[in-house]
C-alpha cells in the first residue's frame, strides 16, 4: 500500500540519525553531498543509502575501499572512473525527494561496480558486470523488504518495508524471462549485441533474473566480485578468457562458484 506524501514527510521529520543495527558491519568511509535532493533530509537519505549498501557490504569481510561521495546527478546514475580532488570515488544518483526505492536501487547498482573493482578498460565484457550490478539492485531491494520489516533505520519506517519488494517485483515483471536451461542459448544469440552495447538494460535485465536466483541461493558469493576485474581487459578479450581471469585471481573457495557461472553460459574455465 502506498504511503501518502504527507506520511513520507512525517517519517522524515521523525528521523534524526541512523543508528547501525546490531548485526551491521561498519561501512567504508562515505559521505553525502547535501545539495539537490529536494525535500528529503540528508539524515534520511544517508539512512536509506547506508541501509542499502549494508545489504551487500556484509558479504565483504575485511574488504578495504577508498572513500566515497554520493552526489545528485541529472543524467542517470553513474559511478565515475576519475576520483575527485579528495581522492574519493564519485557516485551520482539521479533521484530526489522521498523515493526511497529509487535511492536503494541506484546505490546498490553503483556500489556493486565499486565492489567489483570497475576499471576504464576495453568494454567488450562489461555487460557481465552490468548484469551483476542489476542483480545487486534486485537483491538489495528484496533484502531491504525483510530487514526493514524487523529492524529499519527508524522504527516508524517499518510500514515502508513492503514497498521495496513491490518495486523489485515491478522491475522484474517488465523483464524478459529466460529459462535457466536456455541461458547459454540466450547468450550465444545476443553475444554480439552485448559486446556492442554492454548497458543494454533489456539484455542485462534478462540475465540478472537468472543471476538473482544464484546470488540469493548463495549470498556470501557476492564476495567473489572482489576479483572480477583483477586486471585490465585487453582489446578483443573473450568472455571465456574474462571468466578464466576472474577464477585465476579469486581465492580457491570461489573457484567452483565461478565455474558454475561459466557453465550456465555454456563455457568452461
Topology of helices and strands:
Layout: H1 5-14, E1 30-32, H2 42-57, E2 68-72, E3 78-79, E4 89-93, H3 100-115, H4 126-150, H5 161-173, H6 183-196, H7 201-217, H8 239-249, H9 255-264
Parallel strand pairs: 1-2, 2-4
Antiparallel strand pairs: 3-4
Q: Overview of this structure, please?
A:
The N and C termini lie far apart (47 Å). Strand 1 (30-32), helix 2 and strand 2 (68-72) form a beta-alpha-beta unit. Helix content is 49%, strand content 6%. The chain has helices spanning 5-14, 42-57, 100-115, 126-150, 161-173, 183-196, 201-217, 239-249, 255-264, and strands at residues 30-32, 68-72, 78-79, 89-93. The chain folds into two domains: 5-115, no CATH class; 126-264. The protein has a four-stranded mixed beta sheet with strand order 1-2-4-3, with helices on one face. The chain has 269 residues and is mostly helical.
Cross-sheet strand order for the largest sheet = 1-2-4-3
- N- and C-termini, Cα separation: 47 Å
> What's the β-strand tally?
4
Largest β-sheet summary: 4 strands, mixed
- Cα shape: globular
Overall number of structural domains = 2
Low-pLDDT stretches = 1-22
- The DSSP helix count reads 9
The helix-strand sequence is HEHEEEHHHHHHH
Please give the radius of gyration in angstroms. Answer: 19 Å
Give average pLDDT, whole number. Answer: 92
Amino acid at each position: 500500500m502506498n504511503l501518502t506524501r504527507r506520511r513520507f514527510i512525517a517519517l522524515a521529520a521523525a528521523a534524526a540519525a541512523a543508528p547501525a543495527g546490531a548485526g551491521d558491519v561498519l561501512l567504508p568511509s562515505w559521505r553525502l553531498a547535501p545539495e539537490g535532493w529536494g525535500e528529503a533530509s540528508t539524515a534520511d537519505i544517508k539512512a536509506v543509502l547506508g541501509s542499502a549498501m549494508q545489504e551487500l557490504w556484509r558479504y565483504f569481510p575485511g574488504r578495504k575501499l577508498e572513500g566515497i561521495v554520493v552526489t545528485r546527478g541529472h543524467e542517470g546514475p553513474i559511478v565515475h572512473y576519475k576520483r575527485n580532488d579528495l581522492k574519493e570515488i564519485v557516485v551520482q544518483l539521479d533521484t530526489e525527494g522521498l523515493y526511497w526505492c529509487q535511492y536503494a536501487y541506484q546505490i546498490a547498482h553503483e556500489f556493486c561496480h565499486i565492489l567489483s573493482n570497475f576499471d576504464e578498460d576495453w568494454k567488450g565484457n562489461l555487460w557481465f558486470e552490468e548484469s551483476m550490478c542489476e542483480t545487486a539492485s534486485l537483491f538489495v531491494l528484496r533484502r531491504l523488504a525483510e530487514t526493514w520489516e524487523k529492524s529499519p533505520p527508524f522504527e516508524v519506517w517499518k510500514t515502508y518495508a513492503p514497498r521495496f519488494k513491490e518495486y523489485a517485483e515491478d522491475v522484474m515483471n517488465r523483464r524478459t524471462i529466460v529459462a535457466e536451461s536456455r541461458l547459454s542459448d540466450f547468450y550465444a544469440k545476443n553475444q554480439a549485441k552485448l559486446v556492442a552495447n554492454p548497458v543494454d538494460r533489456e539484455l542485462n535485465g534478462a540475465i540478472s533474473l537468472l543471476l538473482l536466483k544464484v546470488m540469493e541461493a548463495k549470498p556470501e558469493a557476492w564476495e567473489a566480485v572482489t576479483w572480477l576485474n583483477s586486471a585490465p581487459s585487453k582489446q578483443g578479450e573473450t568472455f571465456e578468457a574474462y571468466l578464466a581471469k576472474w577464477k585465476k585471481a579469486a581465492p580457491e573457495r570461489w573457484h567452483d562458484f565461478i565455474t558454475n557461472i561459466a557453465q550456465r553460459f555454456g563455457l568452461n574455465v
